[in-house]
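Sample entry follows:

_____
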Amino acid sequence: MTPAPARIATLDLIRGVAVMGILAANIAAFGFPEFAYMTPASMGWPSTPDLIAWTTTFIVIDGKMRGLFSFLFGASMLLVIDRAEANSEDPATVHLRRMAWLFVFGLAHLYLLWWGDILAHYALVGAIAYMFARLPVRWLVAVGLACIALQTVELATLSAYTFDLQASAHRPGATARAIANWQSLADQFGQPSRTSIARELAIGSGGWRDLVAWRWTHAVGPITSLTATGPETLGFMLFGMAGLRSGFLTGEWPRRHYAVIAVAGVGSGWLAYAGIATFDIAHGFDARYVALSWLALATPFRPLTIMGYAAAIILLARPGGWLTTRVSAAGRMAFSNYLGTTMICTTLFYGYGFGLYGALSRAQLYLVVVPIWLLMLLWSKPWLDRLRYGPLEWVWRSLSRFEWQPMRGSAFTTSR
C-alpha cells in the first residue's frame, strides 16, 4: 500500500478554522433571502440582538473566512503541483483535472442544492492561478496586490454606479425603466420592495424542484462570479502560494513576527470594519451605502486582516491539544464539511425540509451554527482515525486520478 504523504499541520488547522467560519458567514444566506445577506435591515429595522449579531459578524467573519480559505486553497494547490513534479507526473494535467472535477462538483452544488456555491468559482480561478505557480515569493505578492487593487477599482466603480442609478430614478420625470433598474439593484443590496420580499420568501419555502428551477434561471453563474470577484480571489490564492513558499503558513517564521502580524492585521482590520459598520448604521443601511461599504471600502482591508488571522491561529495552536486536533481534522475534511453544512442547512431551512426559511431572527440563526460546529469537531477526527480521506475528498481524488484511491490505512503523518 502506498504510504500517505505527510500533512502540514498548520495548513489543516487554518483550513479548519476557515471552513467553520464560513458557516458562520453563510448562515444568513441559508436562513434568509439573498438580499438579507449584506444588511440586517432588509425586512425592517433590526432589533438590538440582530444588530449586534450583524455587526459582530461583519467585523469578525464576513469576507475574512472566505479569504482565509482562498489563501489555503492557493497553498494546497501549490503543494499538489510540487508533489506531482516530485512523482514525475505532469503538474498541469494533475492540477487541471482536479479543477475540472471541482467545477463539476460546484455546478451540482450551485444548481441542485444552494445558490451560494464557491467551488465552481474556485475551480475557474484555480485554473488561472496555475500560470503564476512558478513565480518567486516577491512576484506572487506583487501580482496578488495588483489583483486586489484591480478589484478595489472595479468595485468602487460599481459603487459609484449605484449612486448614479439612484439619482436617475428619483429625478422628476424619471422613466419607468430607470426606476425599475434602480429597484433591481436596490434589491441586491438589501433595500427590496415588498413584492420582492414576498416572492423570495415564497421561493425559499417551496419544494426542491421549484428551487432548482429558480436557481437555474436566477442564480449567479460561475462566469459572472469570475468577472465580479475573480481578481480578489486570485490575489488571495497567490498570497497563499507566497505564504507556503516563504514558510509563513507552515509556522517556520519566528514567533515574534507572527505576533506583530497578528496584532497589526487583526487590530487594524477590526478597527476599519468597525468604522465601516458604523458608517452603514449611520446611513440607515441605505442600499447605496451598503454597496459602497461591502464593495469598495471593505475590500482593501481584507488581505492584512486575513494575514493577521493566519498568524494568530499559528500562534495560538497547541499541538496535540483536543481543540487543535479536532479543528485540524475538520480542516482535512474541509470539502466534506463544506458540502455537509449545505445539506444540513438547506434541509433545516427550505420548504422541502423543516421550513425554517425566514422564520428565525438573525441572532437566532447563530444558535444553529454552534451545534453544526460541534458536529464537525465530533465526526471528523474519528473518521480520519480509521480512513485516509474524508468521503468527498476521496471521491474527488479518485475522479481526478481516474482510479479509486486506497481509503483504508493509517492516518496521515503530520509536520509543522
